[in-house]
Amino acid sequence: MSFTGLLHFLASFSQSPGSPLPPGIDLKGKTAVITGSNGGIGYEAIYPSATGPEYHILAVRSLSKGEEAKKSLAVDSTAKFHNSNANIKVMHLDMDDYHSVASFVTAVKFDVPALHLILNAGIAFLEHGYGPSGHERTI
């Protein structure tokens, strides 16, 4: 089966939003960064994290798609049920571009007093290669 075929196979499964975090875990007032959060696994990862962190940073390659995801979350009754007080910010992050990563880190250091949780829903390259800035994609 090809990689694309595998992705289509996995996408054929319907999955309900994640369940809340186990009791005793308090993420109130905490900040979570979620990569790839404008769709797929990254978007779904917002649901369990929505049970606690007060601040969500949607780290996305496409700001327009990130803003669409933010709007979708604002009207999503499941997300509101988990955490109606969540503050969501969309920020650009292209993990394949070193300069984008460095800019993101600088912006987060400036904007966020403390970072508590990183949920990485990025796609891994299976073959060795280099990104646009000359850095290895895989190790």
Provide key terms for this protein.
37% helix; 139 residues; alpha/beta; 4 strands; four-stranded parallel β-sheet
β-strand amount: 5-15%
Q: Uncertain segments of ≥5 residues (pLDDT<50)?
A: none
Our Rg estimate from Cα atoms comes to: 16 Å
Task: Please give the largest β-sheet.
Answer: 4 strands, parallel
Mean pLDDT: 77
Seen as an oligomer or otherwise, the chain set is single chain
- Helix residue percentage: 25-40%
In which order are the strands of the major sheet placed? 3-2-1-4
Tally of helical runs: 5
Order of helices and strands: HEHEHHEHE
Q: How many extended strands?
A: 4
Structure notes:
- The chain is 37% helix and 14% strand.
- It has helices at 3-11, 40-49, 63-75, 77-82, 98-111; strands spanning 31-35, 55-60, 87-92, 117-119.
- With 139 residues, it is α/β, with parallel strands linked by helices.
- The longest helix is centred in the C-terminal third of the chain and has 14 residues, at 98-111.
- 23% of the residues are buried.
- Strands 3-2-1-4 form a 4-stranded parallel sheet, covered by helices on one side.
